[in-house]
Sequence to fold (684 residues):
Amino acid sequence: MSRDPRYDILFEPVRIGPVTARNRFFQVPHCNGMGHRDALALARMRATKAEGGWAVVCTEMTEITYGADVAPYVELRLWNDEDIPQLARIAEGVHAHGSLAGIELCHSGYTACNLYSREAPVGPTAMPASSYYYDPIQARGMDKTDIRNLRRAHRAAALRAKTAGYDLIYVYAGHGLGIFQQFLSRATNHRNDEYGGPLANRVRLLKEVIEDTKEAVGDTCAVPVRIAMNEFRGPEGLDPPEVEEAISMIAELPDLWDLSLASWSKDSQTSRFAEEGFQEPYILNVKKLTTKPVVGVGRYTSPDTMVRVIRQGILDMIGAARPSIADPFLPKKIEEGRIDDIRECIGCNICVTGDHSMTPIRCTQNPSMGEEWRRGWHPEKIRPSHASASILLIGAGPAGLEAGRALGQRGYKVTISDAAGEAGGRVARECRLPGLSAWGRVRDWRLLQIGKMPNVELYLESRLTAADALEFGADAIAVATGATWRRDGVGRYHVHPVPIAQDADVLTPDDLMSGKRPSGRNVVIFDDDHYYLGGVLAELLVKEDHAVTLVTPASLASYYTRASLEQAAIQSRLLNLGIIIRANEAVKRVARGEAAVECVFTQRETALAADCVVLVTSRTSNDALYLELTGNHPNVVAIGDARAPATIAHAVHAGRRYAEEFGSPPRDVLDVPFKRELVRLTPA
Ligand code: ADP
Ligand code: SF4
Fold:
């Protein structure tokens, strides 16, 4: 197939200072939890994006000095020449596929706590260091010598980046993390010298550093500026009119403007809170201010939308972090006229949780993300089967569908059978809940791929017993029958069942998703799961006119979603909907019409009126079929939630892993099943 001429515009080259991008697809810098620790894994991941057609592929933030270290986060470092080889490895991988390599040099100012280097953090103004854990550390306000040293450090890092082979060397003023934004914003710059006060003063350091960088490396390297258009602090911080004014003061100085929002949670909003293109209202005017190319993001996955933003003169290049994670081959697929094959990001931010947990990036849609080097997985290719075999997959949830798709791609004969009338398992049910419709893409993409494979058959409304499965006669069986929410309150807080009166109305998430509803108006949701579902069900019920109280043993609603950047948005949405959040409490007993809750610290009890209690605590694997089959069939496994309940991303990964490893010689469980970066000891 060939490209639809409507999309030709996306493949026009773009000149960026002294370099030229071969098309308009720009993978903007994004964190990935691998950084300096997982050098080769990171290099392969970036190279895979270049292979997939992104004309520019950037690193994540790269610390320019030990004096601004963001430990415990694992980002890149360019502290001195010793770091050059690792950075060079990334650039080489990107160049090997004909793309430009970009590096986001970063000094994180007062958001770098220097937990590793133990230097005193610095910022434009003396203030508490900003960190996830509220570290009891303050940043020192920078004096003139500090500013001079910052400029020297940036220049030295730019030269090292050039030596490492980078084509675009960033000046970073984004996400509240880049120190040049901290100088630009009156929220964080309270200086009264020539670097503080009026905007012309606050923009001074940014201007000087762009000039320094251009002077140092601008002969062969482009110098982009990444800038936050809005800090969402109202009159206390940056907003689009003021940033536009700042941009007009230095409009032609950088070689490219890369636009974003601050903080990161505003920039990478999930599909529950923001649609594709959600940043457009903030960036609309920038192209009118400069002749330099403008890049912006907004979870763009649709080529028609991409064409629109370029034709409307909003952007010159389509920036992407998440769409390039979910589908590293997105540009190639558009180029080859394979629009259907694009694996669209669902906007869940599981990718972000890798960075927050300092573990390699993972993606719900793309199980090969982060596994390119250590397991040798590729987003598009998979090793063909060596011998023919037939495989029965029981369950068409994310695990079963991904296993079926990938085994099918390998050429095996695959049968997937599901008891339900529709495919997708938990995804099919959850995507009907408020704000989660994009999650259906996990199912839709896999069904579409499977539909193209004559060797994969899918049977719905076909509940299998162990006898049915054995009679089927497959060479191998994978049980992907998912998990069921518990009805007894056992979870993290309660290790034994909660006393529940016989006549009490108790529902589980499965009940609600299959259409059951509370018997009366007052509903108490006990959320001891802490991810999205408790909050989403609260939204569902309040919109159906129930009075909802969310009880959580954690200090915040949907506590885990801090890692997916959604927690603040969730808590404010729930509060604005009139949902009462009772933090640090747990449901202790349930009677008809009443729930007893206790404080997790003092165990003091309160009685809440509750016509119905919804228990969102933990799940039990549906492993009965697996247990019956094992011992009666030589090759049977349980995968996904049927093995151990976890996220959708875990289930997709488990399906992929089953398919990747199928037919390989048995491996001793004591053998590490992936490669890892081993520390090379520095001579003592
Ligand atoms: P996972 O996240 O591990 O993929 P899900 O819960 O999403 O798990 O999906 C499990 C699927 O398995 C559901 O669609 C369910 O209908 C199906 N299933 C469960 N038991 C059986 C069975 N005995 N026979 C066929 N399908 C089953
Ligand atoms: Fe998109 Fe979710 Fe994948 Fe991140 S993890 S790229 S948000 S699908």
User: Anything to note?
Assistant: The domain at 390-482+622-661 is CATH 3.40.50.720 (Rossmann fold).
